[in-house]
Specification:
The protein is of the alpha+beta class and 302 residues long. The chain has nine helices and eleven strands. The chain has two domains: 142 residues, Alpha Horseshoe (Serine Threonine Protein Phosphatase 5, Tetratricopeptide repeat), CATH 1.25.40; 126 residues, Cathepsin D, subunit A, domain 1. The strands form two sheets. Strands 3-4-9-5-8-7 form a six-stranded mixed beta barrel. Strands 1-11-10 form a three-stranded antiparallel β-sheet, with no helix packed on it.
């Protein structure tokens, strides 16, 4: 009678042990699956040029597995692309890129592609010496990338001169005081419509193709919403938002202005923010400027 009982207990013990082994294995598999999904999503965003979403997805992958080289490398590339543009660089964002690349190199110091991108980021930060140090290391492991980097270093030019005082287009200074809130740069903008002039604060956004204002700003400018065109757009996260579009008589930022520029009137969704809309590339394109994060000013180029 007792022998079967012993056998049953033995088998239950085996099952319990197997269950305890399977639980952490299942959790590990689920984590690996989430990590892989975040990486696939991040790389897709990176290929499509949506660097903000790419950075967020790479960050999530790195949280799941802090030793994932691809996650840190992708995060560095995303920040590098976010921090550089045709006419402006954002040092704070580029510093995040260098941190991500350094983290990746701690895990895999022999990755030539990471060193190459770190060097390019240092050039964007106007640190030619740091880029040259990476070149000296790179030429021992990847001659092709080292040659490309040498060409980039050779063609590097210091940033253009920026005037802090003087006159430009009838304005008093080349320099505009801004508010820096983390990575956000809040810029004073003056809009003129008919006989009305309104100054607002817009978020400088090199990822936005168009400049946007809030319905409250449109009301202050006397814009008749019934005479504006209806628009529909996709916001960050994939949601659809409806707004209006109109032509602005004049938009002025520092020494620069645009006449007859179309702006979108879009209601803000979510918690309150410190700005009234976005200053997009339709205004900024072709203008040379540098954001001085430390002193919280924009220096306008020649």
């Amino acid at each position: 009678m007792r022998q079967p009982m012993k056998t049953v207990r033995f088998h239950l013990g085996m099952l319990l042990s197997m269950f305890l082994l399977l639980v952490p294995f299942s959790l590990l598999s689920a984590q690996e699956g989430r990590e892989a999904e975040f990486l696939r999503t991040a790389n897709r965003y990176l290929e499509n040029g949506d660097f903000r979403k790419a950075a967020k997805a790479f960050e999530e992958a790195a949280k799941i597995n802090p030793d994932n080289v691809e996650a840190h490398k992708g995060l560095g590339i995303s920040y590098m692309r976010l921090g550089t543009g045709e006419a402006v660089t954002f040092p704070d964002i580029l510093e995040k890129a260098t941190s991500a690349f350094h983290r990746a190199l701690l895990i895999n110091p022999d990755n030539a592609d990471i060193r190459y991108n770190l060097a390019l980021t240092n050039l964007a930060l106007h640190n030619r010496e740091a880029a040259t140090r990476e070149y000296e290391i790179l030429k021992k492991s990847d001659l092709k990338l080292a040659e490309q980097l040498a060409a980039a270093i050779a063609s590097y030019e210091p940033p253009p001169s920026y005037h802090e005082t003087g006159r430009y287009a009838g304005k008093e200074y080349y320099q505009t005081k801004v508010t820096v809130d983390g990575d956000r740069v809040l810029v004073p903008v003056t809009f003129r419509q008919g006989d009305r002039a309104v100054q607002v604060v817009l978020l400088l956004d090199t990822g936005a193709t168009t400049t946007t204002i809030s319905p409250a700003t449109a009301s202050r400018l006397g814009i008749d919403m019934e005479k504006t065109a209806r628009i529909r757009g996709q916001v960050f996260g994939g949601g659809i938002i409806e707004g209006r579009s109109t032509k602005m008589d004049n938009a002025e930022v520092g020494p620069h202005n645009r006449t007859g520029m179309r702006v979108d009137i879009v209601p803000h969704m979510g918690p309150p923010v410190k700005y009234d809309g976005l200053l997009g590339m339709d205004f900024l394109r072709g203008i040379r400027y540098h954001v001085d994060f430390k002193n919280q000013v924009i220096n306008w180029g020649e």
